[in-house]
Write a structure and sequence with these properties.
Layout lengths: L2 E6 L10 H19 L3 E8 L4 H9 L4 H13 L11 E4 L6 H14 L3 E11 L4 E3 L17 E10 L5 H10 L3 E3 L1 H12 L5 E2 L1 E3 L9 E2 L2 E6 L1 H6 L1 H4 L7 H9 L3 E7 L3 H15 L6 E5 L2 E3 L2 E2 L10 H8 L1 H11 L6 E3 L1 H31 L13 H19 L3 H22 L1 H10 L10 H22 L4 H10 L19
Parallel strand pairs: 1-2, 1-12, 2-3, 7-13, 12-13, 14-16
Antiparallel strand pairs: 4-5, 4-6, 6-8, 9-11, 10-11, 14-15
The chain binds zinc ion.
Length: 505
Amino acid sequence: MGRYYLTTAIPYVNGAPHVGHALELVQADTLARYHRGIGDEVRAQTGTDDNALKNVLSARAAGLDTAEYVDLVSRRFLDLAGPLSLSFDDSVRTAFDPRHRPGVEKLWNACLERGDLYRRSYTGLYCTGCEQFHSPEELPDGLCPEHRSAPEEVAEENWFFRLSRYQDRLYDLVSSGELRVEPGFRRREVLSFIRSGLEDFSVSRSVERAPGWGIPVPGDPGQVVYVWYDALANYVTGPGYGTDPEGYDHWWTRADQRVHVIGKGILRFHAVYWPALLLSAGLPLPTTVLVHEYLTADGEKISKSAGASVDPVAVTEAFGTDALRWWLLRDVGRSGDTDYTEARLVVRHDEDLANTIGNLVNRTVSMVARYRSGVVPRVADESGEPSLARARVRAAEQVDAAVRAFDLRAATGAVVALADEGNRYVADHEPWALARAERAGEPGKRGRTGPEALDTVLGELVATGRELARLLRPFLPDASARLTEQLGGDGGQLPPAAPVFRRLG
Ligand SMILES: [Zn+2]
């Protein structure tokens, strides 16, 4: 048991959430649920990045006041908790949360006292989409590779952070695994970025360019704290840095694991800039940065205007929460982008949940109803048919190892493999033949007779169904609850059969 603090990144709120946002939320929620399930003390935090310049631009385009617009969109993100069955303990909305600004100011002052903040004039190419300056080498054909737009040339006097000072320490921390970056190819990417040389970066904007939005630099009201500095700080302001010393100490300083779940596009901010700010302020670093890839939709990059096909709420309304969560966890790999289509979601749901897990449970429940009037047989001899019992132990071990390695695809795969074993067990043992033999008073298959043979088989199947329900809990909390109910929890009498998963296709 340990103390486990987990965060998602906080998205900009300049447009509606899409399935790519759902991916990160569901991954993080699954980790949080898993760790609660093994007895860890867990705090899972999400939120929204309200103070970005591009939120201001989107509000303007929508003809709304910035605060009003940001409030509206930010709620849409947090409201995903219902349709996606999320279990976050806390959320930070950076423009509205009273805990946030005092923490950002405290972090700023800590870096200032360390001598890591200084003013200088600067000219650079700024991408509003990324909210960052790019060097010309990072801009093939003069365009931001992420946003395919030409950055704006900006000249002003800003505050800078002495990132260069932390180059060697960051390299050691990441290469030694003290700051773990997963998967490994993302760790190597961070190391090569650090090795290429870290330059000081600008951590403020002029008030004019951030038109009146954001947190003023302490002691310098002409400048606004750079939105990334502001946003990253949410990971410590949520637990109480700057407002609640005990909460901060409990959940940040003394957590056994501090895990950030993020998308690949913001890796440098989390594995380089953020640790450097923490080193400067003398605060503990995250222990782990878990990086996911992106989703495309029907082969295209998902844009804010993509519409209902990638609106996670619309997807859950059409296909159910379990189907979307399952697709995100089961089909999305750790390297390379994954293409989301409704057809893929339906096929994955039907193959794994309806045809494999659902089929096993439905058959089990209906055989217990038919042959034993719904009463789950007590299995006297546990060693009688150990094959399925072994498969249950193996599946639980595989799920645990995969979740600890942050490989949720392998974890869900291990659950399906157990259900496959269960279906094979039914085919091998032919409970219907055992029931026939029992009625006729004949020796059953494998030379055994009497109720023990059929009781053993049915008891093993019920135990396997219950284990599937237990293993699915962090991944599909809703389906897990339905399976548990269908399989009678601790009781011996099963309720009337009703399929837990209906085919979608
Ligand atoms: Zn960009």
